[in-house]
Amino acid sequence: MTTEHVDVLIVGAGLSGIGAAAHLVKDLPGTSYAVLERREASGGTWDLFRYPGIRSDSDMHTLGYRFRPWRGDVSLADGASILDYVRDTAREYGVDRHIRYGHRVVAAAWDSTTARWTVTAEVEGGTRMVTADFLWSCSGYYDYDRGYTPHFEGQDRFGGEVVHPQHWPDDLDCAGRRVVVIGSGATAVTLVPALARAGAAHVTMLQRSPTYIVSVPGRDAVKGRLTRLVGEDRSYAVTRWKNIAVQSALYRVSRRRPDLVRRVVRKTNVAQLPPGYAVDTHFRPAYDPWDQRMCLVPDGDLFAAIRDGSASVVTDRIVSFTETGLELESKERLEADVVVTATGLNLQLFGGAELSVDGEAVKPHETMAYRAMMLSGVPNFAFTVGYTNASWTLKADLVAEYVVRVLKRMRSTGTRTVVPVRDESVGEVPLMDLDAGYVQRVVHTLPRQGTVAPWSLKQSYLHDALAIRTARLDDGVLVWS
């Protein structure tokens, strides 16, 4: 069996993987690379999720790539537009010709004697091996096969349909039907107004506890005016930095003065809800702002659906399904024809692939993350995971820039191996500090972060943009050989 060899092997043809490959094309010409994609289409999240109203939960002028402006002034774009943008980027940089579809990476083994990775992928009819000098995981952080659904008592006796947004049926029609959406995160607050607009008889968002929900303009007025004055590229750069500054300021203020942010969010919610609405019951979280990710709604569409009566919010806990709906702890019964379990994701590192170094399995929880993009003791390896408090692509672009710097250094010096070596005196803390369920369920399995740089994770683009772009590669932590 012939084994293909490339300089860099990228796993995942979504937003991160296509961006990574485009960086190689434009910044490190002559690099041979391939992108292994488990599914039969590119786009990652934006091709997988097909539920009504699917859109970004970050503004597009920071979710778009730094090197390729997002055209227009739409702030929160629909999924189809984002998918087109990602695929257009792949075509523009020729990345689409390097994607190998139907390749599910199950194992990657590093051999120090050859200074190469051997990657095993399951393909139709068997397996395929690809070797690479450098391995770059861009497969995101959740399980594409299974969304998270908790056990619900009595679900088997429900006479209607139960669907998870990650697996939305193409033929599901909710028009004229009563829909209950279980959850209060970004997916739920997107689905509720979308289903109401699509003609559902009524949509109920059933939540155990409230989430911070903030209305934002659907279009960026500053971007629109700037584009008319100075053109698309310049207006994109200015708008991008404007939005980065606003995001960063909101996060910092939320952490330092949470009571102030609580009051501001509550005031804006009250202004958009009907008079006398029980805002403190349904829109006052028990946790501080940014302990979990805030939800953005374009032009207050969720609040508009509540005002016009096409949607409602119920804050309660489920006792069990009934034949016709749900029974709650308050003894209330919610009648439903369709129940949507917008209950979250199952977190999964590296697409589920097993890593090993010289025959010894890599246990992620025993490693420490270097700059939140490499693993201690794992040579010639990088991974891309975006921010939890800002747009994913902000971090993805920084990771790509840094990996290109590393690869240029290796090429110019003839270095074959680079590996972060952990200082055992550095203290450990969890990699992700969100209280979100999908994180807390598996936080013990994740790599750790350190208490000092370059092992610590700041969750700040402004900090990382300076630190990552100016960091010395000879920092005493990366070992080159």
General description of the model:
With 481 residues, this protein is α/β, with parallel strands linked by helices. It folds into 2 domains: 4-145 and 346-480, 3-Layer(bba) Sandwich (FAD/NAD(P)-binding domain); 161-217 and 259-341, FAD/NAD(P)-binding domain (3-Layer(bba) Sandwich), CATH 3.50.50.60. The protein has 13 helices and 25 strands. It has helices spanning 15-27, 45-48, 60-63, 79-92, 186-197, 221-230, 232-256, 258-272, 279-282, 301-307, 392-413, 437-440, 461-470, and strands at residues 4-11, 33-37, 99-101, 104-111, 116-123, 126-137, 161-163, 178-182, 202-207, 213-216, 295-298, 311-315, 318-321, 325-328, 333-335, 338-341, 354-357, 360-361, 369-370, 374-375, 381-383, 418-420, 428-430, 448-450, 478-480. The strands form 7 sheets. Strands 1, 2, 3, 4, 5, 6, 17, 18 and 21 form a 9-stranded mixed sheet that branches. The chain has a 5-stranded parallel sheet with strand order 7-16-8-9-12. A 3-stranded antiparallel sheet has the order 13-14-15, with no helix packed on it. Strand 4 (104-111) and strand 5 (116-123) form a beta hairpin. Helix 6 runs antiparallel to helix 7 (232-256), helix 7 crosses helix 8 and helix 11 packs parallel to helix 13 (461-470). The chain is globular and about 70 Å long. The chain starts with a strand and ends with a strand. The mean pLDDT is 92.
